């Protein structure tokens, strides 16, 4: 039987965002970022050698365009020596309707699987470097709980590491909103955002927020974590609106949920928001509050689906 290796990686949500590249070809970011890996959403990927003429990707049982995956596998060929074409079979347990980015879990799982197939030393730093080149945020999904991606300055210095490997009882409630507008990829979106006149200020502020965030995590201060994450994310989206070609990921529902969350906070609930390259809102709260908050959300937004997620584990072989 031909050798096959299967790996699973979970998606992560940044509390301090990666939103801009200092080096586009290598995915070296303008800021260091910090994320929480989630238990609920993940990708399982199997790789094996094939004698076909091309690398092939089967995603959720459907043969899919493999251009990006094949380009990524070529990076392995360049770095570790040539090998036959690869059949990649991937199951995404990230609801695409929810617009949650699956590139983090996908490239992290694929990296892990390829390290296994090529019998490379399972060095987490090297894995994070490779995953980063597939998709920046994938560098962090190698790790469970809280990970920091230190931006570095070149290929070998830009990688993530586990920052705090304990579940601090943080909850993320994901509001699955449908997008009313044409999708703008994160790759393109961040490129535009970097043209905002205030972008350098956001980058500088982000470095300060990162240190405060680390402190909040160590102290298990979810209120502090949420406040900084919300400020960092809203600042990121402000750059999009101020870009030379302005754009906005928020929809009417995004604004409504943000307002609702702010109102909940005024009423004494622990509740903050973070938002990525799409309309979905992730509400940051804690385990003690999640049920009550979820009830309130269901009452006010009966048409919206909410998913509750907690801290998840890092890359695993299955
Ligand atoms: C808003 O990692 O998807 O989720 O490196 O171009 O593939 P590429 O971008 P990607 O960007 C993620 C952006 C974000 C913030 C974050 O995860 O830090």
From TrEMBL:
<keyword id="KW-0067">ATP-binding</keyword>
<protein>
    <recommendedName>
        <fullName>diphosphomevalonate decarboxylase</fullName>
        <ecNumber>4.1.1.33</ecNumber>
    </recommendedName>
</protein>
<keyword id="KW-0547">Nucleotide-binding</keyword>
<dbReference type="InterPro" id="IPR036554">
    <property type="entry name" value="GHMP_kinase_C_sf"/>
</dbReference>
<dbReference type="GO" id="GO:0005524">
    <property type="term" value="F:ATP binding"/>
</dbReference>
<dbReference type="InterPro" id="IPR041431">
    <property type="entry name" value="Mvd1_C"/>
</dbReference>
<dbReference type="GO" id="GO:0019287">
    <property type="term" value="P:isopentenyl diphosphate biosynthetic process, mevalonate pathway"/>
</dbReference>
<feature type="domain" description="Diphosphomevalonate decarboxylase-like N-terminal">
    <location>
        <begin position="9"/>
        <end position="160"/>
    </location>
</feature>
<comment type="similarity">
    <text>Belongs to the diphosphomevalonate decarboxylase family.</text>
</comment>
<dbReference type="InterPro" id="IPR020568">
    <property type="entry name" value="Ribosomal_Su5_D2-typ_SF"/>
</dbReference>
<dbReference type="Pfam" id="PF18376">
    <property type="entry name" value="MDD_C"/>
</dbReference>
<feature type="domain" description="Mvd1 C-terminal">
    <location>
        <begin position="173"/>
        <end position="303"/>
    </location>
</feature>
<dbReference type="InterPro" id="IPR053859">
    <property type="entry name" value="MVD-like_N"/>
</dbReference>
<dbReference type="InterPro" id="IPR014721">
    <property type="entry name" value="Ribsml_uS5_D2-typ_fold_subgr"/>
</dbReference>
<keyword id="KW-0444">Lipid biosynthesis</keyword>
<keyword id="KW-0443">Lipid metabolism</keyword>
<dbReference type="InterPro" id="IPR029765">
    <property type="entry name" value="Mev_diP_decarb"/>
</dbReference>
<dbReference type="GO" id="GO:0005829">
    <property type="term" value="C:cytosol"/>
</dbReference>
<dbReference type="Pfam" id="PF22700">
    <property type="entry name" value="MVD-like_N"/>
</dbReference>
<dbReference type="InterPro" id="IPR005935">
    <property type="entry name" value="Mev_decarb"/>
</dbReference>
<keyword id="KW-0456">Lyase</keyword>
<dbReference type="GO" id="GO:0004163">
    <property type="term" value="F:diphosphomevalonate decarboxylase activity"/>
</dbReference>
């Amino acid at each position: 039987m031909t050798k096959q290796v299967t790996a699973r990686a979970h998606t992560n949500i940044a509390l301090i965002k990666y939103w801009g590249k200092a080096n586009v070809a290598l995915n070296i970011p303008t800021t260091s970022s910090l994320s929480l890996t989630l238990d609920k959403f993940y990708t399982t990927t199997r790789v094996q050698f094939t004698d076909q003429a091309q690398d092939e990707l089967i995603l959720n049982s459907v043969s899919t365009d493999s251009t990006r995956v094949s380009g990524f596998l070529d990076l392995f060929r360049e770095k570790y020596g040539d090998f036959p074409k690869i059949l990649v079979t991937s199951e995404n347990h990230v609801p695409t309707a929810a617009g949650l980015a699956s590139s983090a879990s996908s490239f992290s799982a694929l990296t892990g699987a390829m390290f296994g197939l090529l019998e490379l030393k399972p060095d987490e730093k090297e894995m994070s470097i490779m995953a980063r080149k597939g998709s920046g945020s994938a560098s962090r999904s190698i790790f469970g709980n809280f990970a920091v991606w230190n931006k570095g300055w070149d290929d070998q210095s830009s990688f993530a590491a586990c920052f705090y490997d304990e579940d601090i009882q943080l909850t993320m409630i994901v509001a699955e909103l449908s997008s009313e507008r044409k999708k703008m990829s994160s790759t393109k979106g961040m490129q535009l955002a970097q043209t905002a006149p205030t972008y350098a200020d956001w980058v500088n502020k982000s470095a300060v927020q990162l240190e405060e965030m680390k402190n909040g995590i160590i102290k298990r201060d979810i209120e502090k974590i949420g406040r900084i994450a919300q400020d960092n994310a809203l600042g990121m989206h402000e750059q999009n609106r101020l870009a030379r070609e302005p754009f906005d990921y928020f929809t009417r529902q995004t604004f409504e949920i943000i307002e609702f969350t702010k109102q909940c906070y005024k009423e004494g609930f622990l509740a903050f928001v973070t938002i990525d390259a799409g309309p979905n809102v992730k509400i940051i709260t804690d385990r003690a509050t999640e049920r009550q908050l979820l009830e309130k959300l269901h009452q006010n937004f009966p048409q919206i689906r909410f998913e509750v997620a907690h801290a998840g584990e890092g890359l695993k072989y299955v």
